[in-house]
Write a structure and sequence with these properties.
By secondary structure, the chain is α/β, with parallel strands linked by helices. The protein has helices spanning 11-23, 40-56, 73-83, 125-135, 138-141, 160-169, and strands spanning 3-6, 27-34, 61-67, 88-91, 116-117.
Amino acid sequence: MSIGIFASGGVDSTMLLYETARYNSNVHAITIAYDVRDYAEAKVVKPIIEKVSELTGCNIESKIYYLKRTKSKGDDFLYAATKLNLNEYLIGLTKSPAGWKEDQGRSNIQIKADRLRLPYKDLCKRDIILMYKQYKLDDLLSLTVSCVSRTGPIPCGACWWCKERSWANG
């Protein structure tokens, strides 16, 4: 069975890529990079894919789609999914921490596609960090980033995503 993982270089999508590659041999990492061809997510995922391949023995195919931002991430996922003919597509989207006022659009993401799955939708980032510890994947975790800039992976430590990651490690 062929499986596509939407890989952003973040904690959640990287763990999903790892778990999928452990049990499947036909895995495709799909990255959506916005606006410019050298956008940071495209740079961040390459060493992650290489490390996951090394750890699992899975030869992961990588595809990067350079898109202009649309009004919906769900639309972008569906666009990229239609370009490949895979059996299933997985997104490592997690829920926001309990009690946080902002959720960065996670609670209202609407994706209607029969082959698109959100296996971590009931987990939060702390649950995912615990998975890294359980699998003893500190080296893989160190390759992930919470936020990126257009010049490269630079975790700022101040944005919502960096605060969430800090909370998860807490």
